Amino acid sequence: MAELTGSLCLDDFAEGKGVLGTTFMSTAAQELKTGALDDDLVKVSEHFGRTDKQTVFQTAGALVGKDFLSWKADAEFAGQGLTLRDILLPLNKIPDSFILDKETLAKWQYLKGAKSEERTHSSGYRWRYSEGSMSFPDPVDRPSRTILTGEGGSTPSRFKHVVDQDGHLRRLHPIELERLNGFPDDWTREGTQGVIQDGKRAFFMGNALVVGLIRMVGATLAERLD
To answer: pTM for this one?
Structure first.
């Protein structure tokens, strides 16, 4: 197997000895699969996932050079689990601009829903566009989806979060987005030029990482460096 820096090799990842495996205490590898990618990156891009009836890539893995391992891993977490509901502000703290208006509701429903429709390119080329449905509104009794940089703004979107709070459909407030990433409330409210607009604050959180996870990975790296 290909060697990494030091004495750690691909086999060690399957035993949970990598940085992420050690940090998040994933169980030992199950249903281990091995292989190597093609030297031709164009072939990899054009044929990846299209020739095999069942992918060899599972929930965890490691790649060194062209060699890869892939296995089924289950994460172990002993801390407190949070749901989307746990980070929501009271409805009376939410500006009216975050409440979905009736005029755009149909657009939201269309974008979030499943669809299979013919579309035409400006060149005249036609193709069949299909995609599955997304939860609308987002379930507040489950963890949040990933925040994207386009989370802000009132324009209907397939990927923005929408929650039902006391019978009102609304978008997430910047403070709630900060909480999802583990930042203190109003961390992004002011900058060197003064108060930051809500859309830019959402963009910042879409570009950010989850603070707690980075702290945990950093602790593992620091321990190994010592």
So the answer is: 0.80
